[in-house]
Design goal:
With 163 residues, the chain is α+β, with helices and mostly antiparallel strands. 21% of the residues lie in helices and 31% in strands. The protein has a single domain, classed as SH3 type barrels (Roll), CATH 2.30.30. It has a 6-stranded antiparallel sheet. A 3-stranded antiparallel sheet has the order 3-4-5, with helices on one face.
Amino acid sequence: MAGGDTLDYARLVRNALRDVPRQALRRASREGLPGEHHFYLTFRTSHPGVAISPGLHASHPREMTIVLQHQFWDLAVGEEAFSVTLHFGGAPERLHVPFAALVAFADPAAEFGLRFEPAEEKAGKADASGPEGAEAVAAASQAGADPATGNVVDIRAFRRRGG
């Protein structure tokens, strides 16, 4: 098959993985968070489309992790981004985050997490399996493990090497 005739499975998986936080946030926006569920969302603060206050950006020039648990307001979830109001230092701040800016998503109550490889790192990696490389890395934590430090499954390990 010619290069343009191949299925880009890395892109399909990447898109499917990015849909997990989108669907979880949509449910939370409609119904609230059930039981002990809460979300840790880490995102690149300088990614195009991220809108945070200059003060938050100065405090978090590269990445920021937010927690949606008990005190968050006006969660709005679209196809490409979500917005939420959180309090920082007692003052409300509205954040707008494109899903493409996400670095990680975790729900410790479910012992579940996803990590997404930043596009900047992707560009520097040589990968014979395709021009895009694997941007998404899925991580499911073991029982009792922190989702951010649990077992990481890199989808590149499942690619065919060679032809």
